[in-house]
Amino acid sequence: MSRFFKRIINIIKEGLKGIWVHRSMGLASIISTFATLFVIGIIIIISVTVNNIAKEIEGKVDEVEIFIENGTTDVDKLAIETKINEFNGELTYKYRSSEEALNMMKETWGEDAALLDGITSDGLLPASFVISLKDINQADDFVSYIKEQKGVDDVKYYKDLIDQANKISYYVQIIGAIIVLVLMVVSLFIISNTIKLTVFSRREEIFVMRYVGANNNYIRIPFMIEGLFFGVVGSLLAFLAVYYGYNFVYNYFNAQISDSLSIVSMIQPILFRNALLNIFTALGAGIGVLGSIFSIRKYLRV
Hints:
The protein folds into 2 domains: about 1-60 and about 160-300, no CATH class; about 60-155, 2-Layer Sandwich (Alpha-Beta Plaits), CATH 3.30.70. It is built from 9 helices and 4 strands. It has helices spanning about 1-20, 25-60, 75-85, 100-110, 140-145, 160-200, 205-210, 215-260, 270-295, and strands spanning about 65-70, 90-95, 130-135, 150-155. The two termini are about 30 Å apart. The mean pLDDT is about 75.
């Protein structure tokens, strides 16, 4: 058992020694991993942010507003309300009077609300029913169901905005996934060739080790340790650059975005920090180890 552990220790020592001896080539591997994962990180953040914006838009503009014609009698308003309740779908609704609509407009205008002083709601803003559907996919059916009802002047629903946001989110994720895959292959190729130069410079040493009876693992694992180290270092540097870069952008712009466009907000960096770190570390380690395996296998063929 002690002999086995000694072999393990020797293999690890060879790997650590290789890290120092081949640090110049290792630097190229680190830079390659860093550049690849940095771009991948940006793509991930863009994809997650766009998807979050799409979900926020869907959650905040998913109301259907039924505008009532001016002069509609209370009986017809009651008929509209009855038809709303009879819809085959789970929903909640509220009645918004002309006065309430005017007050909401004043709140929206903020400091400019004084321009509306003296204006009455009569004939300016129609009363309406505001509908919140549990399943937003039923919105089209509901609009078709209610728009022909007597007393209904118009039905407003931000379908185009929601559809466009979801479409953009979908394409961003698909394109992002393709770019990430291509970058990983390119990075694997670069690291593999970088390590291959190291292997080539040590080919005589490897042949001697094979000649004296060293098995494949004894030769392969030190290179894998080198690749693992360089890959992880590159991934950690990329994580720090992406995370703190996004954190800076978040702190600088989030307040302005929230004030001027309250419908969307940026994701807090802390919410994806651990996930991003785990993804980067796994990718960096995987790229480094696989690059080493591909580089050394030529010299391990029997």
